[in-house]
Amino acid sequence: MPMAFEYAMSIGPTCRAAYHLRRCLGPAAIKGVFDWQVTPAAAFVKYLERDFSGLLDFLDLEQTSEGVRNIRFDTLHPHGFTGPLPLAYPEARARHDHLCARTRAALKGPAGLVLWLSDPISLEDEAMMSNALRFYSPDLVYRVARAPRAGSDGPDWRGNNAEWDVALES
Predict the structure, then answer these.
(1) How far is C-alpha 147 from the geometric centre of its chain's CA atoms?
(2) In sequence order, what DSSP letters do the residues of 68-108 get, joined into one string?
(3) Is 7 helix (H, G, I), strand (E, B) or coil?
(4) Taking the CB of residue 84, how many other CB atoms lie within 10 A of it?
(5) Beta carbons of 37 and 76 less than 8 angstroms apart
(6) How high is the pLDDT of residue 146?
């Protein structure tokens, strides 16, 4: 019997998958913390190991030309800070904590999930992420789906809509 998947969620490493999930799936696309940041596989594992707590502490952050970088966990936050770091931190932290809670609830919930990777990652990183997920939520029914082969091709950060349309239909 095939597994039933009710929802989809982006698990990084960039926000491209979240854009296409919302564009194509609407309310079946769960908004989570990985939608708004660049998250290497090792940082994804840290989120699970720490149960989504303590991952955006002020002393770990630095302002860069690309956005705010967490130097401790190597995440980049190009969207969450709407001004200079010290002034924008309280609002960004509240949003981050809210999205962490949503992501935690989805990964601990009963619904089947398709977890989308927005960009290619190594098979080793994908295995590390899957192992961490199995440990974090042993009862979670999920599968990991990769971005379409041409998912990175396109005129801008969104990639190729037609390729994503085909990938999300399957």
Answers:
(1) 13
(2) EEETTTTEEESSS-SS-HHHHHHHHHHHHHHHHHHHHHHHH
(3) strand
(4) 10
(5) yes
(6) 85
CA distance 131 to 129: 5
Distance CA 164, CA 17 (A): 9
Write out the two tokens for 166. Answer: 């085909």
* Rounded average pLDDT per 10-residue block, the chain, 170 residues: 71 89 90 94 98 97 95 94 93 97 92 87 94 94 81 66 79
| CB atoms inside a 10 Å sphere around CB 114 | 19
Q: Quick count: other Cβ atoms within 10 Å of Cβ 139?
A: 8
What residue type is 107 in one-letter code? L
| Count of CB atoms situated within 10 Å of the CB of 48 | 18
Angle 39-88-81 from CA coordinates, rounded to 5°: 30
Which residues contact residue 1 at a Cβ distance below 8 angstroms, ignoring those fewer than 6 apart?
A: none
What confidence score (pLDDT) does residue 2 get?
44
Tell me if residue 153 falls in helix, strand or coil.
Answer: coil
Place of tokens 């939608």: 35
